Protein backbone atom coordinates (compact mmCIF):
# COMPACT_ATOMS: atom_id res chain seq x y z
CA UNK A 1 0.00 0.00 0.00
CA UNK A 2 1.31 3.41 -0.91
CA UNK A 3 1.71 6.04 1.83
CA UNK A 4 -0.79 8.35 0.27
CA UNK A 5 -3.35 5.53 0.21
CA UNK A 6 -2.69 4.86 3.88
CA UNK A 7 -3.16 8.51 4.78
CA UNK A 8 -6.17 8.77 2.57
CA UNK A 9 -7.94 5.84 4.19
CA UNK A 10 -6.86 6.72 7.73
CA UNK A 11 -7.23 10.48 7.57
CA UNK A 12 -10.62 10.41 9.23
CA UNK A 13 -9.30 8.17 12.05
CA UNK A 14 -6.24 10.34 12.61
CA UNK A 15 -8.31 13.50 12.52
CA UNK A 16 -10.68 12.00 15.10
CA UNK A 17 -7.79 11.06 17.43
CA UNK A 18 -6.22 14.52 17.12
CA UNK A 19 -9.50 16.27 17.90
CA UNK A 20 -10.10 13.91 20.85
CA UNK A 21 -6.61 14.72 22.24
CA UNK A 22 -7.14 18.47 21.87
CA UNK A 23 -10.55 18.29 23.55
CA UNK A 24 -9.19 16.15 26.39
CA UNK A 25 -6.26 18.49 26.94
CA UNK A 26 -8.56 21.50 27.02
CA UNK A 27 -10.92 19.79 29.44
CA UNK A 28 -8.23 18.73 31.91
CA UNK A 29 -6.51 22.08 31.61
CA UNK A 30 -9.73 23.78 32.60
CA UNK A 31 -10.23 21.30 35.41
CA UNK A 32 -6.78 21.91 36.87
CA UNK A 33 -7.26 25.65 36.52
CA UNK A 34 -10.68 25.37 38.10
CA UNK A 35 -9.55 23.34 41.14
CA UNK A 36 -7.39 26.09 42.69
CA UNK A 37 -10.14 28.65 42.08
CA UNK A 38 -12.69 26.31 43.65
CA UNK A 39 -10.38 25.61 46.59
CA UNK A 40 -9.63 29.29 46.99
CA UNK A 41 -13.34 30.09 46.96
CA UNK A 42 -13.97 27.30 49.49
CA UNK A 43 -11.25 28.59 51.84
CA UNK A 44 -12.44 32.15 51.37
CA UNK A 45 -15.99 31.17 52.26
CA UNK A 46 -14.71 29.18 55.23
CA UNK A 47 -12.67 32.14 56.45
CA UNK A 48 -15.59 34.49 55.98
CA UNK A 49 -17.87 32.15 57.89
CA UNK A 50 -15.31 31.80 60.67
CA UNK A 51 -14.82 35.56 60.77
CA UNK A 52 -18.51 36.35 60.91
CA UNK A 53 -19.35 33.54 63.32
CA UNK A 54 -20.34 35.05 66.62
CA UNK A 55 -20.51 38.61 65.28
CA UNK A 56 -23.32 41.03 64.79
CA UNK A 57 -25.18 41.34 61.52
CA UNK A 58 -23.36 44.24 59.93
CA UNK A 59 -22.19 45.62 56.59
CA UNK A 60 -19.17 43.94 54.96
CA UNK A 61 -16.00 44.52 56.97
CA UNK A 62 -13.41 46.91 55.66
CA UNK A 63 -9.70 46.20 55.96
CA UNK A 64 -9.52 48.35 59.06
CA UNK A 65 -12.33 46.46 60.78
CA UNK A 66 -10.65 43.06 60.88
CA UNK A 67 -10.14 41.35 64.19
CA UNK A 68 -7.27 39.16 65.41
CA UNK A 69 -7.78 35.39 65.62
CA UNK A 70 -9.62 35.37 62.29
CA UNK A 71 -8.42 34.52 58.80
CA UNK A 72 -7.42 38.09 58.02
CA UNK A 73 -4.64 39.88 59.86
CA UNK A 74 -5.79 43.38 60.87
CA UNK A 75 -3.94 46.40 59.51
CA UNK A 76 -2.60 48.78 62.13
CA UNK A 77 -1.92 52.48 61.51
CA UNK A 78 1.53 54.00 61.52
CA UNK A 79 2.74 54.38 65.09
CA UNK A 80 5.97 54.81 67.03
CA UNK A 81 6.93 52.33 69.75
CA UNK A 82 10.12 50.83 71.24
CA UNK A 83 11.69 48.09 69.15
CA UNK A 84 11.68 44.57 70.58
CA UNK A 85 15.13 42.99 70.96
CA UNK A 86 15.39 39.29 70.27
CA UNK A 87 18.33 38.80 72.63
CA UNK A 88 16.86 40.99 75.37
CA UNK A 89 13.65 39.33 76.65
CA UNK A 90 11.27 41.58 78.53
CA UNK A 91 10.92 39.07 81.39
CA UNK A 92 13.31 36.36 82.53
CA UNK A 93 11.76 35.67 85.93
CA UNK A 94 8.58 33.95 84.75
CA UNK A 95 7.39 31.52 82.07
CA UNK A 96 6.21 33.43 79.01
CA UNK A 97 5.11 30.60 76.72
CA UNK A 98 3.29 27.31 77.21
CA UNK A 99 4.60 24.10 75.58
CA UNK A 100 1.90 24.52 72.90
CA UNK A 101 3.06 28.09 72.08
CA UNK A 102 0.29 29.98 73.84
CA UNK A 103 1.60 33.22 75.39
CA UNK A 104 1.31 33.71 79.15
CA UNK A 105 0.38 37.32 79.81
CA UNK A 106 2.44 39.19 82.40
CA UNK A 107 3.09 42.86 82.91
CA UNK A 108 5.83 44.06 80.57
CA UNK A 109 5.25 41.44 77.85
CA UNK A 110 3.00 43.40 75.48
CA UNK A 111 2.43 46.83 73.99
CA UNK A 112 -1.08 48.15 74.69
CA UNK A 113 -0.94 50.70 71.86
CA UNK A 114 -0.35 48.03 69.22
CA UNK A 115 -3.01 45.74 70.68
CA UNK A 116 -5.58 48.51 70.92
CA UNK A 117 -5.03 49.24 67.23
CA UNK A 118 -5.43 45.56 66.36
CA UNK A 119 -8.65 45.23 68.34
CA UNK A 120 -10.15 48.50 67.18
CA UNK A 121 -13.93 48.29 66.63
CA UNK A 122 -14.15 45.08 68.67
CA UNK A 123 -17.09 44.57 71.01
CA UNK A 124 -16.49 42.63 74.21
CA UNK A 125 -19.26 40.99 76.20
CA UNK A 126 -18.87 40.40 79.93
CA UNK A 127 -21.04 37.72 81.55
CA UNK A 128 -21.65 38.39 85.24
CA UNK A 129 -23.82 36.25 87.51
CA UNK A 130 -25.52 38.24 90.28
CA UNK A 131 -27.92 35.67 91.68
CA UNK A 132 -29.46 35.90 95.15
CA UNK A 133 -27.37 38.02 97.52
CA UNK A 134 -24.49 38.29 95.07
CA UNK A 135 -26.29 41.26 93.54
CA UNK A 136 -24.73 43.40 96.30
CA UNK A 137 -21.34 43.10 94.57
CA UNK A 138 -22.56 44.59 91.28
CA UNK A 139 -22.01 48.25 92.13
CA UNK A 140 -18.33 47.88 92.97
CA UNK A 141 -17.78 45.48 90.07
CA UNK A 142 -19.26 47.87 87.50
CA UNK A 143 -17.63 50.98 88.94
CA UNK A 144 -14.16 49.43 88.88
CA UNK A 145 -14.77 47.85 85.47
CA UNK A 146 -15.57 51.25 84.02
CA UNK A 147 -12.26 52.51 85.37
CA UNK A 148 -9.99 49.63 84.38
CA UNK A 149 -11.68 47.09 82.07
CA UNK A 150 -11.33 47.43 78.29
CA UNK A 151 -11.08 51.21 78.50
CA UNK A 152 -11.71 52.80 75.09
CA UNK A 153 -13.48 49.73 73.67
CA UNK A 154 -17.12 48.79 73.26
CA UNK A 155 -18.41 46.67 76.12
CA UNK A 156 -21.73 45.03 76.93
CA UNK A 157 -22.20 43.95 80.53
CA UNK A 158 -24.57 40.99 80.56
CA UNK A 159 -25.97 40.83 84.09
CA UNK A 160 -27.61 37.45 84.72
CA UNK A 161 -29.73 37.85 87.82
CA UNK A 162 -32.92 36.78 89.56
CA UNK A 163 -33.30 40.30 90.98
CA UNK A 164 -33.42 42.76 88.04
CA UNK A 165 -34.83 45.54 90.21
CA UNK A 166 -31.70 45.47 92.39
CA UNK A 167 -29.23 46.07 89.56
CA UNK A 168 -27.62 49.48 90.28
CA UNK A 169 -27.51 52.34 87.80
CA UNK A 170 -23.87 53.14 87.09
CA UNK A 171 -22.65 55.91 84.75
CA UNK A 172 -21.02 54.25 81.75
CA UNK A 173 -18.47 55.39 79.21
CA UNK A 174 -19.54 55.97 75.62
CA UNK A 175 -20.11 52.75 73.70
CA UNK A 176 -20.78 50.68 76.80
CA UNK A 177 -24.08 49.42 78.16
CA UNK A 178 -25.71 47.06 80.64
CA UNK A 179 -28.07 44.30 79.52
CA UNK A 180 -30.08 42.60 82.26
CA UNK A 181 -30.99 38.97 81.62
CA UNK A 182 -33.38 37.48 84.13
CA UNK A 183 -32.61 33.92 85.18
CA UNK A 184 -34.07 31.55 87.74
CA UNK A 185 -32.81 31.02 91.25
CA UNK A 186 -31.72 27.72 92.80
CA UNK A 187 -31.97 26.60 96.40
CA UNK A 188 -28.39 25.37 96.69
CA UNK A 189 -25.51 27.67 95.77
CA UNK A 190 -23.81 24.65 94.22
CA UNK A 191 -26.68 24.38 91.74
CA UNK A 192 -26.34 28.06 90.90
CA UNK A 193 -22.67 27.49 90.07
CA UNK A 194 -23.28 24.29 88.11
CA UNK A 195 -25.99 25.91 85.97
CA UNK A 196 -23.81 28.84 84.95
CA UNK A 197 -22.40 26.89 82.01
CA UNK A 198 -25.92 26.04 80.87
CA UNK A 199 -26.92 29.70 80.97
CA UNK A 200 -23.83 30.82 79.05
CA UNK A 201 -24.51 28.16 76.42
CA UNK A 202 -28.16 29.12 76.03
CA UNK A 203 -27.61 32.87 75.88
CA UNK A 204 -24.70 32.42 73.47
CA UNK A 205 -27.15 30.92 70.99
CA UNK A 206 -29.90 33.42 71.72
CA UNK A 207 -27.91 36.66 71.57
CA UNK A 208 -24.17 36.66 72.37
CA UNK A 209 -23.26 35.24 68.95
CA UNK A 210 -25.14 38.11 67.32
CA UNK A 211 -24.04 40.99 69.54
CA UNK A 212 -20.37 40.70 70.54
CA UNK A 213 -17.04 39.48 69.17
CA UNK A 214 -15.49 38.16 72.37
CA UNK A 215 -17.02 36.90 75.58
CA UNK A 216 -15.51 37.13 79.07
CA UNK A 217 -16.95 35.32 82.07
CA UNK A 218 -16.07 37.15 85.29
CA UNK A 219 -17.00 36.57 88.93
CA UNK A 220 -19.04 39.40 90.37
CA UNK A 221 -17.61 39.18 93.90
CA UNK A 222 -14.34 40.75 92.75
CA UNK A 223 -13.14 44.17 91.71
CA UNK A 224 -10.80 45.55 89.08
CA UNK A 225 -7.80 47.30 90.59
CA UNK A 226 -5.57 47.82 87.55
CA UNK A 227 -5.61 47.71 83.77
CA UNK A 228 -7.33 44.73 82.11
CA UNK A 229 -7.49 45.28 78.38
CA UNK A 230 -7.50 43.59 75.00
CA UNK A 231 -4.22 41.84 75.81
CA UNK A 232 -6.37 39.09 77.35
CA UNK A 233 -8.41 38.46 74.20
CA UNK A 234 -7.82 35.34 72.13
CA UNK A 235 -9.80 32.46 70.66
CA UNK A 236 -9.82 30.77 74.07
CA UNK A 237 -8.12 31.96 77.24
CA UNK A 238 -7.88 30.78 80.82
CA UNK A 239 -6.37 32.31 83.95
CA UNK A 240 -3.83 30.66 86.23
CA UNK A 241 -5.36 30.06 89.66
CA UNK A 242 -3.49 32.17 92.24
CA UNK A 243 -3.34 29.28 94.68
CA UNK A 244 -1.75 26.75 92.32
CA UNK A 245 0.29 28.55 89.67
CA UNK A 246 3.57 27.42 91.28
CA UNK A 247 2.38 23.96 92.32
CA UNK A 248 3.15 20.51 90.98
CA UNK A 249 0.26 18.95 89.08
CA UNK A 250 -0.27 16.34 91.80
CA UNK A 251 -1.28 19.15 94.14
CA UNK A 252 -3.90 20.52 91.77
CA UNK A 253 -7.42 20.11 93.13
CA UNK A 254 -8.68 18.42 89.98
CA UNK A 255 -11.57 16.01 90.20
CA UNK A 256 -9.86 12.71 90.97
CA UNK A 257 -12.85 10.35 90.98
CA UNK A 258 -13.01 8.40 87.70
CA UNK A 259 -16.81 8.28 87.81
CA UNK A 260 -17.02 12.04 87.16
CA UNK A 261 -16.79 13.53 83.68
CA UNK A 262 -14.37 16.08 85.17
CA UNK A 263 -11.88 13.37 86.17
CA UNK A 264 -8.21 14.07 85.51
CA UNK A 265 -5.56 11.46 86.44
CA UNK A 266 -2.67 12.48 88.69
CA UNK A 267 -0.13 12.19 85.88
CA UNK A 268 -1.97 14.67 83.65
CA UNK A 269 -2.51 18.40 83.74
CA UNK A 270 -0.84 21.59 82.48
CA UNK A 271 -2.09 24.25 84.88
CA UNK A 272 -4.95 24.74 87.28
CA UNK A 273 -7.26 27.40 85.86
CA UNK A 274 -9.55 29.69 87.86
CA UNK A 275 -13.23 29.86 86.95
CA UNK A 276 -13.25 33.49 88.10
CA UNK A 277 -12.02 34.73 84.70
CA UNK A 278 -12.00 32.96 81.35
CA UNK A 279 -13.29 33.61 77.86
CA UNK A 280 -12.56 33.85 74.16
CA UNK A 281 -14.45 34.19 70.93
CA UNK A 282 -18.17 33.66 71.40
CA UNK A 283 -18.07 30.49 69.31
CA UNK A 284 -15.30 28.95 71.44
CA UNK A 285 -16.92 29.95 74.73
CA UNK A 286 -20.17 28.46 73.48
CA UNK A 287 -18.41 25.16 72.74
CA UNK A 288 -16.74 25.20 76.15
CA UNK A 289 -19.94 26.01 78.06
CA UNK A 290 -21.98 23.45 76.13
CA UNK A 291 -19.45 20.68 76.73
CA UNK A 292 -19.16 21.49 80.44
CA UNK A 293 -22.93 21.62 80.83
CA UNK A 294 -23.36 18.26 79.12
CA UNK A 295 -20.68 16.82 81.42
CA UNK A 296 -22.56 18.05 84.51
CA UNK A 297 -25.74 16.40 83.23
CA UNK A 298 -23.95 13.07 82.87
CA UNK A 299 -22.50 13.47 86.37
CA UNK A 300 -25.96 14.23 87.75
CA UNK A 301 -27.38 11.10 86.11
CA UNK A 302 -24.54 9.11 87.70
CA UNK A 303 -25.17 10.64 91.12
CA UNK A 304 -21.90 12.54 91.38
CA UNK A 305 -20.99 16.22 91.63
CA UNK A 306 -17.52 17.46 90.66
CA UNK A 307 -15.45 18.57 93.63
CA UNK A 308 -15.19 22.21 92.52
CA UNK A 309 -18.31 22.23 90.38
CA UNK A 310 -17.97 24.15 87.10
CA UNK A 311 -14.29 24.94 87.78
CA UNK A 312 -13.53 21.21 87.75
CA UNK A 313 -15.26 20.82 84.38
CA UNK A 314 -13.53 23.95 83.07
CA UNK A 315 -10.13 22.47 83.92
CA UNK A 316 -11.00 19.19 82.25
CA UNK A 317 -12.07 21.02 79.09
CA UNK A 318 -8.95 23.23 78.96
CA UNK A 319 -6.70 20.22 79.43
CA UNK A 320 -7.91 18.70 76.15
CA UNK A 321 -8.74 21.97 74.38
CA UNK A 322 -5.57 23.95 75.00
CA UNK A 323 -6.22 27.67 75.47
CA UNK A 324 -4.62 29.95 72.90
CA UNK A 325 -3.66 32.43 75.61
CA UNK A 326 -3.06 32.04 79.34
CA UNK A 327 -3.40 34.88 81.84
CA UNK A 328 -0.94 35.10 84.73
CA UNK A 329 -2.13 35.33 88.37
CA UNK A 330 -2.04 39.12 87.96
CA UNK A 331 -5.54 38.70 86.56
CA UNK A 332 -7.03 36.80 89.53
CA UNK A 333 -5.72 37.35 93.04
CA UNK A 334 -6.85 37.22 96.66
CA UNK A 335 -4.97 39.72 98.83
CA UNK A 336 -6.35 38.31 102.07
CA UNK A 337 -5.31 34.73 101.34
CA UNK A 338 -2.03 35.25 99.50
CA UNK A 339 1.08 37.37 99.88
CA UNK A 340 2.12 39.21 96.75
CA UNK A 341 5.44 37.84 95.38
CA UNK A 342 8.01 40.22 93.82
CA UNK A 343 7.46 38.94 90.28
CA UNK A 344 3.77 39.85 90.48
CA UNK A 345 4.10 43.47 89.47
CA UNK A 346 0.40 44.28 89.25
CA UNK A 347 -2.82 43.03 90.80
CA UNK A 348 -5.50 43.61 88.22
CA UNK A 349 -8.60 41.71 89.38
CA UNK A 350 -8.87 40.89 93.06
CA UNK A 351 -11.32 39.20 95.39
CA UNK A 352 -13.61 41.29 97.57
CA UNK A 353 -13.66 40.34 101.29
CA UNK A 354 -16.88 38.53 102.18
CA UNK A 355 -18.53 36.00 104.44
CA UNK A 356 -19.18 33.06 102.10
CA UNK A 357 -21.68 31.35 104.39
CA UNK A 358 -23.74 34.50 104.76
CA UNK A 359 -23.66 35.57 101.13
CA UNK A 360 -24.57 32.11 99.85
CA UNK A 361 -27.66 31.85 102.06
CA UNK A 362 -31.05 32.94 100.85
From TrEMBL:
InterPro entries per the UniProt record, alphabetical: Glyco_trans_6, Nucleotide-diphossugar_trans
Domain of life: Eukaryota
Gene3D superfamilies cross-referenced by the UniProt entry: Spore Coat Polysaccharide Biosynthesis Protein SpsA, Chain A
Protein's membrane topology: Single-pass type II membrane protein
UniProt key word Glycosyltransferase: yes
Subcellular location: Membrane
Cofactors required: Mn(2+)
Flavoprotein is among the record's keywords: no
Keywords: Glycosyltransferase, Membrane, Signal-anchor, Transferase, Transmembrane, Transmembrane helix
Annotated transmembrane regions: 14-35
Chief location: membrane
Family per similarity comment: Belongs to the glycosyltransferase 6 family.
Protein name (Swiss-Prot/TrEMBL): Histo-blood group ABO system transferase 2-like isoform X2
The encoding gene: LOC103542252
Amino acid sequence: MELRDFWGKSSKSWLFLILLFVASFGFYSNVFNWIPRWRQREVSQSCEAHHLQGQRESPPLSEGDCYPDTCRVPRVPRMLYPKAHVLQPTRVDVLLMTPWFAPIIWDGTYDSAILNAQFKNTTIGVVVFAIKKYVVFLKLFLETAEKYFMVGHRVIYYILTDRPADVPQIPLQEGRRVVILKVRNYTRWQDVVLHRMEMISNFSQQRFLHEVDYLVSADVDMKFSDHVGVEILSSLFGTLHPGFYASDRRRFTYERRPLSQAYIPEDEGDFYYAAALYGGSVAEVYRLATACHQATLIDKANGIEAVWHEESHLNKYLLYHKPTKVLSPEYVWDERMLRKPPYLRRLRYVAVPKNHAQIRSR
